[in-house]
Amino acid sequence: MRITPDAQITIPPEIREALSISRDVELAFEIEGDRLYLKKIQPADQISTWINTMRGCATRNLSTDQIMTLTRSDDSQ
């Protein structure tokens, strides 16, 4: 591989396919001695992110049963 005048490199297709790298995948470089490593950054699990965002947002002192009743109630009435 060569670096372009704009300091860019092209990742060969066989490497992109092996690592499932597409246009929107984030990558990170790591330097270790005289070696440069390219690492695929794994996106955070969406459910975990949502849970962490919602943590501490409850404002009522409801029991689990009360919350489940509210969650399962039919709002279309």
TrEMBL record:
Superkingdom assignment: Bacteria
Membrane-spanning ranges: none
Keyword DNA-binding among UniProt keywords: yes
SUPFAM superfamilies listed in its UniProt record: AbrB/MazE/MraZ-like
Keyword DNA-binding: yes
InterPro entries with a match to the protein in the record: SpoVT-AbrB_dom, SpoVT-AbrB_sf
Official protein name in the record: AbrB/MazE/SpoVT family DNA-binding domain-containing protein
Organism: Aetokthonos hydrillicola Thurmond2011
